[in-house]
Amino acid sequence: MQKPLSVYELNTQIKSILEETFLSVYVQGEISNLTFHSSGHIYFSLKDSQSNIACVLFRGNAQHLKVRLQEGMQIEVIGGLSVYPPKGNYQILCKQILSSKTGQLAQAYEDLKKKLEVQGYFAHKKPLPTFPQKVALLTSSTGAALQDMLKIAQKRWRLTQFVIINTLVQGEQAKYSITQNIALADSMGFDCIILARGGGSQEDLWAFNEEMVADAIFQAQTPIISAIGHESDVLISDFVADWRAPTPSGAIELLLPDQTQWLYALQEMRETLSHRFEQILSNRSLLLSSLQEQYKLANHTHKLKLQEDACTQIGQMLQLKLHTLLQHKEQELQALKTLFGSSNPIKRFQDELSTLRQLFISYDPAQKLKNGYVQLTKNGKIIQAEEIKEREVFELTSPKITFKAQRLPES
Fold first, then answer.
1. Residue 20 sits in which domain range?
2. Is the pLDDT at 194 greater than 80, yes or no?
3. What is the pLDDT of residue 244?
4. Around Cβ 220, how many Cβ atoms within 10 Å?
5. Rg of the Cα trace of the chain?
6. CB–CB of 254/235 below 8 Å?
7. Bridge-partner residues for 108, per DSSP?
8. Long-range contacts of range 197-200, CB-CB < 8 Å, 24 or more positions apart?
9. How far apart are CA 143 and CA 249, in angstroms?
10. 143 and 169 Cβ atoms separated by less than 8 Å
11. Which of 232, 161, 176, 186 is closest to 207 using CA atoms?
């Protein structure tokens, strides 16, 4: 006889068979018994008119939920069957939950996107102003998105004026409000329009997927930033707008310049300009000095002044040399005075010269001839009387006459 299974073993085998057989299921039904557990898990039953089945959406998948679950809501569940062995209950482990309307909306989204792309709605983008002065905010005046944008704007750039145009951003009438306000803002001469709202489900954001809203954005002459929901939310308005921001706060950061960076940039430009201006002044000063020198060289008055200065300098040098020479002579004279005492060396030299002159006169033959003397010469040579022999002819010369004579023998 076969050994019986324990209840747990049976439930485990059932679990294995169910999970392998129903690895992936796609089920539609109505929510009932909805419970949001403190752990972050969501428990509920999915039912129709004839049956129901337990479902669980664990916290990891619940964080990415796109719809807001409510009792009686029609949804579509993607997941797999599993059995909880301790109780023998089977349930759907949900991986993804979609509103029953989501599939229809997704198809409408894709159809409109393709249509607008063909018509060129996504091709032409207008640039944003570098320093916007006046910006329209099309959003709910009571929404958190507005306060977030104004807070970022206050920190980032305070020179821009913001005009809030209260706009419905959810519900059936939202598309009309958005369309009218885009046209209104476009006619008021704003530098930019920001179309913004916070996060929400696909149904909450659907107004921004409407064709009439896309037409209004496309026809506007003013640059438009689409800042709807979170970064993961991509809407038709994002494609048609000139710029897309991941969040409303991101739209402000995209549009406004950073005042801190610009202050640093202005300081750097000021220093660069100051340095360049100083260089220009320095170069012009050097040029002016050069022109002044050239003018001086070409100016006759300046040339005369240079020559006058040169003459003055030469005169000063001459005076200096004469002064030096006089000092040197005075020093020599002083040395002579020291050498000869109180006697006058010039007088002494004059006396010696007078004596020599008297001696010269006394020994001058011409002077002697004047006194009756004659000179004895023979053959043009002066001779002495004792050199003349008897009967020898010789000459007697006076200053006025020369005649021959002969020595006679002594008697």
1. 7-100
2. yes
3. 96
4. 20
5. 67
6. no
7. none
8. 197/139, 197/140, 197/143, 197/145, 197/169, 197/170, 197/228, 197/229, 197/248, 198/143, 198/144, 198/145, 198/229, 198/248, 199/229, 199/230, 199/233, 200/170, 200/229
9. 13
10. yes
11. 176
Between CA 343 and CA 23 the distance in angstroms is 152
Which tokens hold the place of 225? 């930033």
Query: With helix as H, strand as E and coil as C, how does 50-113 read?
Result: CCEEEEEECHHHHCCCCCCCCCCCEEEEEEEEEEECCCCEEEEEEEEEEEHHHHHHHHHHHHHH
pLDDT in tens, 26-37: 998 888 899 999
Find out whether 127 and 221 touch, Cβ atoms under 8 Å.
Answer: no
User: Could you tell me the CATH number of the domain that includes residue 249?
Assistant: 3.40.50.10550
For the chain, what is the domain count?
3
| Residue at 313 is within a domain | no
Residues 169 and 233 in one domain: yes
* Cα separation of the two ends of the chain: 223
Which pLDDT does position 226 carry in this prediction? Answer: 97
Q: Backbone phi, then psi, for 330, in 5-degree steps?
A: -60, -40
Q: Which helix (H) or strand (E) holds 215?
A: helix 211-219
- Quick check: is 14 in a domain? yes
How far apart CA 226 and CA 208 sit, in angstroms, is 9
Cβ atoms 178, 279 nearer than 8 A: no
Candidates 223, 227, 247; CA nearest to 237 is 227
Confidence of residue 384 (pLDDT cuts 50, 70, 90): confident
pLDDT digits (tens, 9 = 90+) for 297-356: 776 777 778 888 888 898 889 888 888 888 888 888 787 777 665 556 677 777 778 887
DSSP H helices in 299-379: 300-340, 345-362, 365-370
388 within a domain of the structure (yes/no): yes
pLDDT in tens, 78-104: 999 998 888 888 999 999 888 766 666
CB-facing half-sphere around the CA of 373: CA atoms within 13 A: 12
Tell me what pLDDT residue 367 has: 63
CB 274: neighbour CB atoms within 10 A?
Answer: 10
Q: Is residue 372 part of a domain?
A: yes
Q: Is the dihedral of CA 327, 333, 336, 338 positive or negative?
A: negative
- Residue 254 has phi, psi (to 5 degrees) of -70, -40
Whole-number average pLDDT of the chain: 87
| Two tokens, residue 165 | 């145009």
DSSP state of 299: -
